[in-house]
Amino acid sequence: QVQLTESGGGLVQPGGSLRLSCAASRSIFSFYVMGWYRQAPGKQRELVASMTSGGSTNYADSVKGRFTISNDNAKNSVYLQMNSLKPEDTAVYYCNAQRLYSGSPVYYWGQGTQVTVSS
Fold first, then answer.
1. Containing H/E element for 94?
2. Where are the alpha helices (DSSP H) in 1-55?
3. Cβ-based neighbour number of residue 49 at 10 Å
């Protein structure tokens, strides 16, 4: 079974920065895409950023230019650097990993980490 463990959330003032980390229990080479999602109260979970095993990245329009996804294969980890944070970035952030098993996609989720942007 795959485990994803997030860390790095917290309370930050508008304009501040946070770096989220997600450590996987197995090599991230086994995933064809990893990413970060978020869910604010009363809203649906949405994609924030993703990175394929080939290094291609994708960002939600609302975070382009402010957030950066990266990984460290040696540490089996993926990161989300969040700069210029806004109150509307407040949400629970979830790490996600996807791999193929017998030809079908399998999705894994972390437990989530709270990010609160407030003065």
1. strand 91-101
2. none
3. 23
Residue 60 burial (10 A CB sphere; 0-12, 13-18, 19+): middle
Q: Counting beta carbons within 10 angstroms of the beta carbon of residue 113, is it exposed (0 to 12), middle (13 to 18) or buried (19 or more)?
A: buried
Strands 67-72 and 113-117, sheet pairing: unpaired
The tens-digit pLDDT sequence of the chain (119 residues) is: 899 999 999 999 999 999 999 999 988 888 999 999 999 999 999 999 999 999 999 999 999 999 999 999 999 999 999 999 999 999 999 999 999 888 899 999 999 999 999 99
